[in-house]
What we know:
The complex is a heterodimer of chains A (176) and B (889). Chain A has 176 residues and is of the alpha+beta class. Chain A has helices at 3-16, 25-36, 41-51, 55-64, 84-88, 91-102, 144-157, and strands at residues 76-81, 108-109, 115-120, 132-134, 137-139. Helix content of chain A is 44%, strand content 11%. A 5-stranded mixed β-sheet of chain A has the order 2-3-1-4-5, with helices on one face. Chain B folds into 5 domains: 8-96, Ubiquitin-like (UB roll) (Roll), CATH 3.10.20.740; 132-275, Alpha-Beta Plaits (2-Layer Sandwich), CATH 3.30.70.20; 284-355 and 559-729, 3-Layer(aba) Sandwich (Rossmann fold), CATH 3.40.50.740; 378-540, Dimethylsulfoxide Reductase, domain 2 (3-Layer(aba) Sandwich); 779-888, Barwin-like endoglucanases (Beta Barrel). Chain B is globular and about 90 Å long. Chains A and B meet through helix 3 and helix 4 of A and strand 7 of B.
Amino acid sequence: MTLSEKYGTEIAEILSRYPVKRSALIPLLYLAQREGGYITEAAMIEIAGILKLTPPQVYETATFYTMLNLKPVGTFHIQVCKSLMCALVGSDTVIGWIKAKLGIGPGETTADGLFTLTAVECLAACGTGPMMQINDDYYERLTEEKVDRILADLKSTGSCALKTGPFMWPEPARNG
Amino acid sequence: MPESKTDSVRLTIDGIPVTVPKGTLVIEAARRVGVMIPHFCYHPKLKPDANCRMCLVEVEKMPKLQTSCSTVATEGMAVRTATTVVNDAHKSVLEFILANHPLDCPVCDQGGRCDLQDFSHQYTATASRFVETKRIFQKEYFSPLIETQMNRCVQCLRCVRYCDEVMDVKALAPAGRGTMTEIKTFGTHELDCEFCGGCVQICPVGAITSRLSMYEYRPWMLKRADTVCQFCGDGCQITVQTKDNELIEVNSEYGAGRNSGDLCARGFFGFRATGHPDRLTKPLIRRNGALVETTWEEALEYTAQQIARIKNAHGAQAFGGLISGRCTNEELYLFQKFMRLAIGTNNLDSSARYGHMNGVQAMRRVQGTHRWTLSFEEIVQADVLLLVGTNVTETNPITGLKVKEAVKKRQARLFTIESIRPAIGTISNITNLVDQHVCALPTQFGGAVLALLKAVVESRLVDQRLQHESPDYVGAVTQALERLSWPELEAATGAARDTFVQMATGLAQGRRVVVLAGQELLRSAGGYGSCLLLLDLLLLTGKLTEPGCGFAPLAEENNDQGAVESGAVAELLPGGLDLANPEARARIARAWKADLPLAAGATLVEMIDRARSGLVKGMLIVGENPVGSLPTVVGAKEALQRLEFLVCQELFLTETASLAHVVLPAASSLEKAGTFTNQEGHVQAVRPAVDPIGESRPDWEILSALSVLLGTPLEYGDAKELLKEIRGVIPGYGLLGPAPIPPKVDRAAVERYLAGDYRRALAARYTLAGPADAAGGTTHLGLFQSLFHSGKLSTRSKGLLQIEAQAALRINPADAARLALADGDRVRLSNRRGEVTTTVKVLERVPEGSAWFPDHFGQDTAKLFECAIDPDTNVPAFRTASVSIAKIS
Ligand code: SF4
Ligand code: SF4
Ligand code: SF4
Ligand code: FES
Ligand code: FES
């Protein structure tokens, strides 16, 4: 099924937000990603058609943003921030823990298709690093125990109460 | 800052004062005083992007270095381009680029003409402080003709920007980000685009190169010849590079020629057509029914003998001649002189008859010129453009670029009447850029112009002065238009009245209005009438005589315009003079010191008819292929088979040449000297890049040799001598200057037209064309020109065949769905004239209910078409037919 067939109304709503059609590119790519966790070629071609762009123009944007996936990702897409602030407080170690626990390095997916690990640039939660984002949720001030629990919870229940974000300043008191 | 009143600013570059127009970039101001600021991402054709930082300069009173490619020169600015600070900055930028650049120069085709090499040399970068491993991209297959080597890329994005801003193709994408940005097309797909070669030409390094000549040369080994492309009327200047008499590559320097350095696929990749192994290298003569090799002596003597025999037995009128608009002016001129003097007949014609004559005759009648009153500059500077039946991207790609420039860079309003749907595709589509578009069938282009005229009249947009001075003309046109109703016009054109009103209003408001008519209009039935209607449109809106406004019919063959101007059509003498005019005839007779034949000559199809009926017994055909070009109903093959003698001068053994009694091998335009006249009327030098293949000789030499044998010597030492004679006959012809000065509309001719000449066949052209063809079926089959081919010559080009190797019928996705067809499926096309089978290709830009077949592969479909001869211009129209399509499983 095409995106237009499935999400016709939502696409129309997105398009109505922008006077210049091309501006709807990222929201539409995001919508396409929601579908299967990543953006397929067919989706890019369809979006190009909707916005009167060529497929290479859509491809250009899709490859620029690390938050848009062009390859299949696991059910849970773990994005660990590796930028300066998080690096100073140990993002390397976080990646190490995950590697030890799941056996995957950045860019890899577990054999069961549950987890994909990616190292990404700053996710704007620098004050509470090290941090990671899994699908749409933030997990901050990571410790080895927290990472353990998060991975275990996700595996068993599909969600985890430790999620904190998207993070907002000032830091909510309940954080801990 | 107070606005300065003048249009220019003064500044200094390294202390040298310079005055430049307002808005000039510092990098350009520096160029004016001979200071070359190093740069990668800047290119004068592109909008500044300032992404490479190579062009940093110091500007007094500015705290930091500025990118000279994006800084506009202002009054009193003091720029320094060679201080230590600047040099250090340049060095560091280079150091960053070289940190990732491979040591490829020895195997890189760009080596020796690479900006990165040059700048590295200039700044003698030695040791790098970077120790990290270099970025490495996996090599991926890119396309059959264009190669990428992304490790060499300096990420200046010139290629991407050119493909978007200039070409409007948008086939290239910078994929990824940062150092890992890589130029790709779409995922792992191979490149599918216009293959204009622009990205190859504009890449400052060896990251995008041509595969046609990969690893075959080092730039300094190449010999250059600046000459003119042989594939269309745009007349692009090309530089042909050769090594040991072998064609290696073609390019066009920035700013060169009328094309300003831009080319299309035919120009850039089509050059090897003339080196094809099938080229004729020896004269052929028919013996016992078969063509066999012979010597030039025998071939020429036999030919002269046969011509003389026919002339003696049946008179000069029993002979006819055809020549291709691919020949040089010198050859076209000599050909018609040969026909008129050595043989003594006006039975002569050229490929201009296939359509160009419709535009020429309309211009002669209404505005008294046989040329455009415009040049490319006026197209670029137009504020309103109307395109009718041009399919400009595919027929005249560089004219297309001028239109794109006018619209994209200068915000001109674009109106189109084309048989194309706006759609994004792998090649650009001019109707994507329109203000208003009418998607009409070629048979209804005239109808659409009528609707436009009606809108002009009804919306009271008729020029006041014209109304006042020529009330009869305005009245007659108004009356004729009253007879047409909006419902029938809307039904015929498929567009609403309001669209035409909008267009009419836009045209009337425009200050620089340019109307382009293309192949699809010029070659359609009623093409001449439609051209007159377009001229009526310019007249009525008061634009025809205004500066910057005018009518421009596009030429198909590279020298169709030259054919007209050299007198290589039955009814015209050199200089566009009318054969029927005694004064004109006398003038040419004086110049030639000989009498001209009086009897009006037969044109293309008339000659074929006379050959069939036995009136014409002998023909000389130079580079023209009526058997391969005309539809089956004309019966060219049967007619030519009846000739007692047929001699062809040809590059290849074409369908026509294979019927000949003698075939003389001719040199191609890459192998001879002369001039071509492009559609603007610009006469440009053709220079030999390689020696003639085998024993082939330039057409003019062959004609000259024959004339001697016929006892009417027309002898010339070289092509230059011929040009000198042409200049004597047509004063000032082809003073090869940088830009043509277009002629002005001849007011006397306009007055003659307005005073009554307009009445001739007024009713006929102010009538809607009926349903064109009733041969069966509901699909409108049209022959069209593909961007990747031109006539039959290009189908011998290896490069172009790699892009488009086979004929495929283009159909609309909705029609494809209805017939359950996908790319590559086979279909049968049929009507009551016959049937053919072919494969399909689904294309969104094809209108529903239409199907396009590429002209140059058209031989199979030739039987499906009817041929209508224009009663005024004798132009044969045979490009549309109705057919039914059925899937073959
Ligand atoms: S060759 Fe193709 S990709 Fe390159 S500029 Fe031309 S159209 Fe674009
Ligand atoms: S391929 Fe060439 S033109 Fe394109 S970005 Fe790289 S260096 Fe620039
Ligand atoms: S075919 Fe026409 S547009 Fe293309 S390069 Fe030749 S002259 Fe130019
Ligand atoms: S550096 Fe990690 S969130 Fe900003
Ligand atoms: S040339 Fe100025 S920044 Fe690239």
